[in-house]
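Feature request disguised as a bug report, sorry. It would help if multi-protein outputs had a clear separator. Right now it looks like this:
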Amino acid sequence: MLRFRDYSIPRKLTWMNMLVSGTALTLACASFIAYDLISFRKTMDRNLSIQAQIVGTNSASALLFDDPHAAEKTLSALEAAPSIVSAAIYAPDGHPFASYWHNHANQPAPLPASPPPQTQMHWFKDRQIALVRPIIFQGNLIGTVYIRSDLQELIDRLQRYAIIVAAVLSVSLLAALLTSSVVRRSIADPIVSLAETARIISRERIYSVRASATGNRDELAILIGTFNEMLAQIQERDTALQSEIAGRRHAQEELHESQARLAGIIASATDAIVAVDEQQRVVLFNAAAERMFRCPAAQALGQSIELFIPQRFRSQHAAHIQRFGEAGVTNRAMGSLDALWAVRTDGEEFQIEASISQVVSDGKKLFTVILRDVTERKQGEERLASQAEELSRQAAELERTEQELRKLNDELEHRVAERTSELEATNQDLEAFTYSVSHDLRAPLRHMNGFTRILVEDFGSLLPAEAQRHLERIENGAQRMGLLVDELLNLTRVGRKSLAVQVAGLGSIVKDVISLLAPEIDGRQVQWQIAELPFVECDPTLMRQVFQNLISNALKYSRPRSLSVIEIGQVEKDGIPAIFVKDNGVGFSMKYADKLFGVFQRLHRPEDFEGTGVGLATVHRIIQKHGGRVWAEAELDRGATFYFTLGGREHPVAGNAAAAAGGH
């Protein structure tokens, strides 16, 4: 923290002016406030004394006639003075006679120690003034008046004085500050400006600076004028000296800049730069040359350039340099020379490109060589050539492979076409054979069945019981054989028939099938649970046969149950809609599920459940023709569920198939 004597002259003047003004004003205000407070306290004492005298005079008759009510009424007139806190009238013996409280507390204060007769006293305590005055009537003490008043008016007066003093001090100090600024501009600022000018000249040697003139004619103006004349003389001498120094410095700077630029170019060059004299000694060896030849510049300088030339090329190099010097050619560009070889200090040889130039300096001839290592470029060119050859070979190999693949694909497509045509011909022959066999078997079966019935009807009574049983077995077998032939014919027709696809509602198809199978459920308790089924693109006739076979099987294998439950609906399987037919019948073991859809494959005995083993094969053939698949899930003695999907597109559901089958 700076001491006062270290302050600047303007600051000292400002502080002195403000300190003197503030001190004088503070003392004056303090004296005025002290005098006013003393006068105001005396005035308050006098006012209370007058009020006490008036109360005492008006209360004399009340004391003489012992009328406290009249005395209190007299005291209540003090309400006009809000500063009166309380007042009381005491009898000569010191007991309260009447009292008054500004806040109506009605609690008379105890009378202080009695003053001497016919005298009054006052005191200040707890920010209040209290006064006691005797009541004298005809020379006798008939009572005492005790009045207490707060000092709020005095406090308010002090606060107003404080505000006035603060305002006066602020205005006075501001006026002193303004006065100081005027004095500073006329006296202090010229002195400060002169000191600042002297400081600039002393530190920065700028002799063209001049102290600002004040425009006055006092001693300070004379000092500033003399100082400026002295500066003018010094400036003239300094200008002449600086001009001479600047010329020399400019020449040196140009030389240094030229040398620095050349050194920077040589040092930062990515190519190696080597300079040799007429004796082939190295006089310049830049950083790139150090990296190229793996040799420090300090070690290379002064050495023969042949240190970096392979032994087998040194004689040729010397002759080449001699011819270049005698030819008078100043330079040869990069690439104009034949392929060159160089050797590193560790003995490694490498290929380079070079450009050479010669210059004469101070009567001495210097040769500057710029070298570029082309080893990586050569290796890259070799790698590119090798890669191009390899790519060409791979392209030829790829072309041969593609030709072989095309040939194999053509052969495979030909074989597939042949096998497909052979398979189609075989299937057609098999279907034709099946149809022919089935058709040709129908006449013998009808004959067997007819003649068996004739024997039973015409000679049944003459035949023994054993013969009748044999005839019955023959008739049943012929009927079963006829049914089997019909199923085979139906399966053959399915395989040969082309699809007549149209949009059909599966709900209406299920309704027709249930109506068709009504005779099979006569006398049985069957509970149908049929959900809404979609409209799909299918062959309605074949789809009716699918539902007929599946629902017929569900009814057949749930026959042992007292209540058969048949559920038909739609679910999502692996994200694909699937139709299902579920029953609560006897079910089957899933280990035999792969035999379900084969022709003549049965999982139950004929004695338990009738059938030919062709129905599910027909379902499988129809679903395949629709581009879908069919499968089953079951558990032994817990029912079975058959699922199938269709390749056709679904359409919005138009009705509820359950409503159509509700009557069953």
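(second protein starts here, but nothing in the output says so)
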Amino acid sequence: MQANAANRSGPVSLEERFQDMTGNNKVWRAPLAGLASLAMIATMGVTALSANAAEVTADSEVTLNANGGYFGSDKDKTTDTLKAGDDKSFADNLYTEKLPSYSGRTFTGWYESATYGGQAVDPTTVEAGTTLYAHWTTSSKVVTFELKKTGVTAVKDITGYGDVVKVASGDSVEVRLAGGDKLADWQVPSEDQPGDSKLFQGWDKAVADAKAGDDLKPETVGAGNFKFVFNGSYKVYDQTGKEVNNLTDGVDVAAGTSVADDLSVISYAGKNADGSYNKVVKWTYELSNNTTGEFKFGETKIGEGQSYKLTPAADGFAHAWKVQAGLGDTDSNTRKFFVTDGATFDTAKLSSYTLPLVDGWKANGKWYVTGNAESTAKAYVESPAQTYPLTEFTSSTKVADNTYVAPAFEENPQAADYELTFDPYYDGQPAATVVKIKGDAYLYDQVPTPTREGYKFAGWFATAKRALESENNSDVKNDSERLDTTAGLLDETKTVADLFDTTTEKTFYAGWKLDLNSGDFVKLLRLDNDAKTYTTASFREYDSIRTDLLKTIKKETGVDLKAQLSLTDSALRTFIDKNLKSDDALKYAQVLQDAKNNLVKVANIDTTFGQYGFSDVDALTPHAVDIRYAAKQGIVKGFSDNTYRPSATILRQDFAAMLYRLAGSPAYTVSASDNIFSDVTPATPHYKEIL
């Protein structure tokens, strides 16, 4: 049961009172719980359809999938198409034309998924090109909403809903619903029935949990009713600056509550001599028993069962000026507000104005006075880059004339092209991932999650230094600084421009932590090369590091792991957990993991002799890559038999020759006076290079 809003105090605005109302006469309106507002009265009965996300034309189509059923008499015809038609909407034909059949089952509506568990699509908001799936039920039961004498009225036009939602004799609404599916908002009646002294508050059961066979009854509070009566020409504008109509329809208001004053009612019998307008600031009421009095919005409490007729008081007018937000007389989105002479205006109300899209620019929230002629407003959006030589219009500006205001613009990051680089940042890493993306796109599903053998990913960081530090930091510290979580890289609600403003090129660096435990340490301690997986030379290096590490562990901790290697894996792991601190065990394991990462797998190398330029050098030769590089650069020459003799001793004279070649073999004329060595003669090999 919903809370009884009648116990609240103070007037309630349009946003609170009527926040879910769409103005679509094919959509059941939201519960009118709480205190009434004038703007709500003005918007009752508005019949504008909700705008489709994708433009619908007369030739627009949707694809209908029978989802187990078939169309017409051909049981093999499981799909069909439906055109919008001249109305450029699927509202009146989606649930009445081309409906499928399914033996022993009843059609319950069109859904966006073939899987049950969703909500039927609102026919007024279906987009062109959509594929819709039929849902079915084997039950004859329906969800029933009781209406008779209960304060709720059925929707006025349900021709587009067929038998999926229908009014039964005006006393109830019946909705077909398959098991597992949920009621959609548009299927639920929730518009108050005016004039019955009851204000609808909601249903006695949770609509979200409703299933076929349920019977829901409305809950109401006592109410009064009032409506406007005008004699003469008046125009009315709501708190968003839009002109509204249908002001003479009555509406129920919870008894004991007041009504917020959020309309501007203007007499259009003629302007005043100074060009100002006459705004109604005082109202009188008349009850059904002919009682009259002053009606004060925000103060007068509505009596239960009373019917109020409101008219402007004879002395209830004040001079007011028009504040118009827009871009000229052709702007259909123009907003008009009326402010009493000398008063200020809350510019937050201008947020209701739908700002135009200007390529590369966005409104910066500021407004400027463009003069007192409507046509002057256009120029200030056509050249948004210009400097405004105008007066800014703010909430502290006193209004003393009819005023036209236009929005100011600034560079729009949403229109920018961003290049974001995600660098794995470790030796031997794969190429960085570069994401090229528009500022108005969402990044969350394009942020990569890199992998690295023996390590766990610690997050993306702003600098290379911070990424390196993550290896030794705690998970808690890393989680507090990683940008993928703290800076919103994975936030599904933020665009790229929301995250980075005008900085269009950024690099993120991956942080890593060794993903090891005592079990991994045991595996590294026992690693062998019996299967000749690794080259002999590289495994010899690994084994040497392991031997030295066991000595270091004994020296630093007094624990002799070498003496325990005969234990089973489980027993050795238990011994490590018991005798070594976890941080120490991780540190030692990391030494072996790094050594393992340097092992060379035989399967990954070409062992053909001669590939490095010398007959006795292959990929297994220590420093083979460096030897090849030095030979290619002419730094080393080898011997006349095409050998390098990699294990031979290098003499100082040979090394001098290498240095000379490394320097580019600079021109030099040999001079005995340069010889400072007693054991070097012209007969010494590389005599010139030595000098």
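Even a blank line would do. Unrelated, but nice: The first strand starts at residue 61 and ends at 65.
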